[in-house]
Amino acid sequence: MSDGFTSRFTDEEMAAIRKSLRDEARFGAEFLGRLKRVARRIPFAEDLLAAWFCARDPATPRRVRMTLLAALGYFVLPLDALPDIMPLLGFTDDAAVIAAALAAVASSITPGHREKAKQAMTEL
User: Fold this and answer.
1) Which stretches of the chain are DSSP H helices?
2) Claim: this prediction has a pTM higher than 0.85
């Protein structure tokens, strides 16, 4: 009888696991790299980081994680409704998407996530 932890994964399952880890690492690198480049210019940078820490927390429900990752993905996406290079207006669409996602899942973002975000902001 298998306990779910000691059984061997199929080759297809292992390939899917490796791909998701590569994609998550790449997404994380893209998100954090972009945030470092623009953090001082956008007022919602700390909220972005709190959302990132919440999405990475294994205790966060899957629905919340997916909502936050979709919003963070929009921030990373190079093509969006308003190009980010536009003065004053460039990040308004990103802010709106992040604000909507945060409002939808606000109860899942803990004081611990916010504290990590605050600490990370000092390192950017």
Assistant:
1) 11-38, 45-56, 62-76, 92-105, 111-123
2) no
Question: Which are the contacts of 28, defined by CB distance < 8 A and separation ≥ 6?
Answer: 56
Q: Would you give the DSSP letter of residue 9? A: P
Q: How far is CA 83 from CA 33, 77, 92, 96, 102, in A?
A: 18, 10, 10, 14, 22
Q: Judge whether 67 and 104 are in contact, CB under 8 Å.
A: yes
> What does the pLDDT look like over 60-118, one tens digit per residue?
998 898 888 888 877 776 665 555 555 556 667 777 888 888 888 989 999 999 999 99
Decide if 103 contacts 84 (C-beta within 8 A). Answer: no
Residue 5 tokens read as 């932890």
Q: Which residues does 54 contact at the CB level (< 8 Å), separation at least 6?
A: 60, 64, 65, 68, 105, 108, 109, 110, 113
